[in-house]
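for the recovery benchmark. tokens below, seq after
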């Protein structure tokens, strides 16, 4: 007879999307509305943008600092994206999932692939899809944060990711932010209820 149905480790929730698909809004909402969800702050060699602060959006590092941390095995995954290095600090993710917290990671497609193989049974990968590439282009232009060249690069990157969609466990189309958020929340909830993630003990 089953005597306990404990859920031990937290889940690593990998959220991937082209910029402009609404990924940041969904991640922020998850963290602010779900008490057991935290966001993993990445390290990057890119410079802070606008009001970004060290330790808040990213840990901003020089290339030398990043390379040192990487050689010391401090990253769970790392990738070179749009001319800069990005990496997920390993120690904090491990600490959170060990104590049962779910950790949201905002990474590129390559990072998603690396996390899937590092945590085959403790991670779920979700791709947030814009309603269309045209809509994505409109959002990037109206955000007014990127040059025309950058926008073109980001759109190309989005098309590349679309070619790798089979890599992801789930795809969520963000044509309505609240609905997309609810979809992501449902995915996390269902993943946590999986039999394989439960500690079944009997007597
Ligand atoms: P941005 O510089 O615009 O904040 O992010 C650029 C890209 O880097 C985004 O696609 C974002 O998902 C990705 N990114 C941010 N942090 C990490 C990370 O730790 N690892 C990987 N692989 N990609 C990241």
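predicted aa per position
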């Amino acid at each position: 007879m089953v005597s306990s149905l404990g859920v031990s480790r937290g889940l690593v929730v990998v959220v991937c999307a082209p910029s402009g698909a609404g990924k940041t809004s969904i991640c922020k909402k998850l963290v602010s509305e779900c008490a057991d969800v935290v966001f993993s702050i990445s390290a990057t060699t890119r410079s802070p943008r606008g009001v970004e602060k060290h330790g808040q959006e990213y840990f901003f590092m020089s290339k030398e600092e990043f390379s040192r941390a990487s050689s010391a095995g401090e990253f769970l995954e790392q990738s070179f994206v749009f001319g800069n290095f990005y990496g997920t600090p390993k120690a904090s993710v491990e600490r959170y999932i060990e104590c049962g917290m779910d950790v949201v990671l905002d990474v590129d497609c390559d990072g998603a692939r690396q996390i899937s193989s590092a945590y085959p049974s403790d991670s779920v990968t979700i791709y947030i899809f814009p309603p269309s590439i045209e809509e994505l282009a409109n959002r990037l232009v109206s955000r007014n944060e990127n040059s025309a060249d950058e926008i073109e690069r980001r759109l190309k990157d989005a098309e590349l990711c679309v070619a790798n969609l089979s890599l992801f466990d789930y795809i969520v189309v963000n044509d309505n932010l609240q609905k997309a958020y609810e979809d992501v929340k449902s995915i996390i909830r269902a993943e946590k209820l999986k039999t394989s993630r439960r500690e079944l003990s009997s007597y």
